[in-house]
Amino acid sequence: MDGVPRVPKQWHPGSEEPAALRFSVLGPVRAWLGDDPLPAGSPQQRALLAALLLRDGRTATASELIDALWGDEPPSQALAALRTYASRLRKTLGAEVLVSESGGYAIRSLSEGALDHVRAQELAADAEKARGSGDLSRARDLLRETLALWDGEPLASIPGPYAETQRARLEEWRLQLLESRLDMDLEQGFHAEAVSELTALTAAHPLRERLRELLMLALYRSGRQAEALAVYADTRRLLADELGVDPRQGLKELQQRILQADPGLAEPSAPKAEPAAALVRPHQLPATVTDFTGRASFVQELSDVLASASSEEGRVMAVSALAGIGGVGKTTLAVHVAHQSRGAFPDGQLYVDLQGAGSRAAEPETVLGAFLRALGTADSAIPDSLEERSALYRSALDGRRVLVLLDNARDAAQVRPLLPGTEGCAALVTSRIRMVDLAGAHLVDLDVMSPEEALQLFTKIVGQERVASEREAALDVVAACGFLPLAIRIAASRLAARRTWTVSVLAAKLGDERRRLDELQAGDLAVKATFELGYGQLEPAQARAFRLLGLADGPDISLAAAAAVLDLPAEATEDLLESLVDTSLLESAAPGRYRYHDLVRLYARACAERDEQPPSERAAAMSRLLDFYLSTAAGVYAIERPGDRLVDHLEPTAYPGLVFEDRHRAQDWLYSEAISLLACVRQSTRGGFLRRSVDALWASVDLAESGTNSKAYEGVAAALREAAQEAGDAHAEARALVTLAYVHYYTGRFDPAREAAVQALELAAETDHLTSCWASNTLGVIALYQNQYDDGEAHLTRAIESFRACHDRAGEASALCNLSRIHLATGRTGSAVSLAQQGTDMYDGMGHALKGANGRYALGLALTQSGRLSEATARLGEALAVFRNSRQRLWEGMSLFRLAEADLAAQRPAQAAANAETALTVLRGIGGEWRRGNVLIVLGQALNAIGHSGRAQVCWRESLDIFQTLGAPEAATVRALLNPLAVA
Known about the structure:
Layout: E1 21-24, E2 30-33, E3 36-38, H1 43-53, E4 60-61, H2 62-70, H3 78-93, E5 98-101, E6 104-107, H4 116-132, H5 136-147, H6 161-187, H7 191-204, H8 209-221, H9 225-242, H10 249-259, H11 296-310, E7 318-323, H12 330-340, E8 349-353, H13 364-374, H14 386-397, E9 403-409, H15 412-415, E10 426-431, E11 442-445, H16 451-462, H17 464-468, H18 471-480, H19 485-497, H20 503-511, H21 525-536, H22 540-549, E12 557-558, H23 559-566, H24 570-582, E13 587-590, E14 593-595, H25 598-611, H26 616-640, H27 663-672, H28 674-683, H29 690-699, H30 702-705, H31 710-727, H32 730-746, H33 750-764, H34 769-785, H35 789-805, H36 809-825, H37 829-845, H38 849-865, H39 869-885, H40 889-905, H41 909-922, H42 928-945, H43 949-966, H44 970-978, H45 980-983
Parallel strand pairs: 7-10, 7-11, 8-9, 9-10
Antiparallel strand pairs: 1-2, 2-3, 4-6, 5-6, 12-14, 13-14
C-alpha cells in the first residue's frame, strides 16, 4: 500500500460486474472491495464508519456523531475533524455509498449481506423460525453460522462512548445466541459434548445464571448428578459473595428437580432428532415373495393389530411378536403383512435382522445407530450409550407413523430398546422363542403349514401341470420337508430349475434318510433336512464352497477372506458365493460380505466333517484364512509403523494378504475386519496354527491400543496363552503374554500387565530376542505407572540396548520416549526433553506418523514440566491431530488430558477444564478407571481455579473412590486436594 486511499472502481455497461463492498463490525472494524481490504483509517475514522454502519442506512446528524465519537468532551475542532474523517471515507468507499444529507451522513447502496451485523441478524431470525417450527437441527446449524461471524471482540480498539455501548450490546447478544444454541444442544441430546464448553463459559462469565443452569442440566444428563448439584452450591455462594442475592427461581427449581431425580429431566423436552428427517422416509422392508401362500388367519390377525396402532383412535404403540422354529416362515409372513400395511405407516418402515439364533446376536446399540441414520440423523449426532441412542430413537419417531420389523430376535431384552414407544408406530418381531416377557406384546405362535397350504406353495413354485399328474409324490415331498415353508421352497425351486426331473425323482431323493444328519435334535430335524435338500442339489464347486466357508467363525466373511478359504481368484469366488446366495443357503450381508444363517452354518460344518475329502482340506482352508489375516495385518502394521522389525520376525505364510496404498485404507480394513479376524485367530490354536495365530494377534495390536476392541482382544490373547501352555510352546506363550500385557496396560490394569510381561520376559529370554525386547519395554512403562522408577529405568535401558543390538530403530525410539517419562518423574527434566526429542526424531526419520505422535506426546509432557508451555501445547496438539486421524481414541483422550495439564500450568484454567471434560468424553468406556481418576484430578484443579469449588470437590471424591478401589498411590494426592489443612 502506498498510503493513498483507494476509490472503488466505476462500472460501465458492458464491463464486468463490479466487486461488492463488505464490512465487519463483529470484530475489528474493516472494509473490503471484493476480496481486497480497504484502508479504514485512524481509530476515530473507524469509529465514524462503525457508527454509520450500525444505523442500518439511517442518517446520523453531525451532533449525534460527535457525541458518538467523543461524548461529553469533544475537541474544539470536532466538527471539522468529523468532516475530515467523512471526506476520507468517501474517497475510499465512493460518494454513492457515504452520502451527506440534512447536515449529517449515512451509508447507503450496500448489497445484500454486505455487513456482518445485518447478516447475523438475518441468520438469527431464520434460526428462531426453524426452532419455532421444530427443526432444531437446522436452527442449531444457523446459530453456529451466526456465531461464526464474530471475530474476537466487537468494534475492537474503537474509541468513544457509542462504541463502548455497542460493544457491550453485541457481546450480550452473542452470549444470548450462544445460550440458545447450547439449549438446543441439550434438547437434541448432546449433553456430554456440551459440558466442556459450558464449563469454560461459566468460568468466563461466572455471574451468568443461564449458563450455570445449562451446565447443571448437561451434567445431570451425563450421569454426573453430584457435580450438577455442586454447580448450584458454587453459584449460590458466588452470588451471595459478589451480589448479596440468591439464585433465580429457575435455578432453584432445577436443583430441586435434580435432587428428586425428576424423570422429566432425563430426556430432552423436545425431539432430539432432526425434524427435517421427517422428509426421510426409510423403506427398508425386504421384497415380499410373489407366491405367498396360506396363513390367511394370521395375516388378518396381524393386520388388524397394526391397523389399530395407525388409526386415529390409536393411543398406544402396537407390538406383535411371532414365534416359531427356524424355517417355519416367520420372516416371510411378517414381511408380507408389513407390505400390506405400508399405507398405514406413511412415514416409513424400518427392518433389521437381529441374528438372535446365533452366538453373536446384533447389539441393540449397533441397530439403533443404523436406524437413526436411516431416519436422517447425522453420525455426529448419534450418542455412544444404548440408553441415549434408544431415547434419541424414540424422540425421532415421536409424531411419526413408522412400522419397525425386528426379525430373528434373540429375546425380549434385545428387542426392548428398539421399540418405538409412541402412538402411531408399530413393531413386528419374529423370534424362535415366545416372548412372554415382552410387556404388552400381541403374541402369535406360528406352526408349520397344513398339508393343503404346503401343497399349494409347492404347486405355485413348480407349476400346476407337473404337480397335477403326481399329486401323491408331491404330498410325499412336502411331508419329507416337514411342511416347513423354507424347506418346501428350496425343494420346489430345485425341481422347477430341472425340467428333466419328475416330482417322483425328487420324492425319492428326499426319502433317502442317509442324506440327512442323524445327530440333529428332533426339534430341529425338519429344518436341517431342508438344508440337506438344498445342499444335495449343489454343483460340486458350490458344495465345496458351502462346506469350507462354514468352517470360519465370525459373523460374516469378506470376499477376499472367502477367496483365501477357497483358494480361488476373487472373481471366481464372487461367482460361487453369489450362486449360493441365489439358493438361499448364503446371505449377502453387504456388498462384498457374506454370512450364513446360524443353523445353516452348523449344517455346513457338519457337511464339511462328513463330505470334505481328504479331511486335510478343512485344515488347509483354515490355514489359508489364517495366512490371509496374518499377512494383511502384518501389512497394516508395517504401514502404521515403518521401520518396526516385528514384521521381519513373524511366522512365514503361504497365502498372501491384501496390499494397501495408504494407511487410511489399511486402517479401514483392520477395523472393519476386527471381529472376523479375532474370531479366526481364536479358533486357530492347534498344531501348526498356534504361532501364526499369536503373531496375527500381535500384528493387529492397534485393535487393543485404540480401545475399540480391547475386550475381545483380551479374550483372544488369554485363549492363545492357555493354548500355548497346553502345547508346551514357550515361543508362542511368550508372544501371547506380550499381547496380554499390552491389553492389560491399555485398560489400566497394571498388576496383571506386569505379571504377564515378567512371564513373557522369562520365557523369551533365550529363544525370542524381539519378544524379550518388547517385554522389557512394556515392563519399563508399567513400572513408570506404578512409581517404581529404578526398576523402570533398568528395564528400559535394557530394552534400548536390546533394540539397538537387533537394529530395531522403531523399538529403540519407543524405549527412548518411555525412558524420557522415567527421567521426568525423577526430576531430570532436561534429559527427559532430550530423550523424547531423540525418540521423536527417529520416528520422523522413518516416516512413522502414528508412533511419531506417541513421541510428541512424551515430548509434550517433558516440555510442560520444564516450563516450555507454548512448545508443549504445540507438540501435544500435533499428537492429538494424528491420534484422531488414526482412530486411536485412547491416545486422543490422553492427549486432551495432557493438554489440560499444560493449560493449567499456563494459567488457562477454563481451557484446561474444557480439555479435561472432552478427555472424559473420549475415554468413556476405554482406558480403565486409573486413567479416568487422573483426568478427574486435573478437571477438579481446573474447576477449582475458575471458582467451581463444589464441582471440583465432587470430581476429587470420585477420583479418590477410584484410586482407593484400585489401591493406587494417587489416592494420597487426592486426599491432599480434598483436605489441604489436614495434610499440612
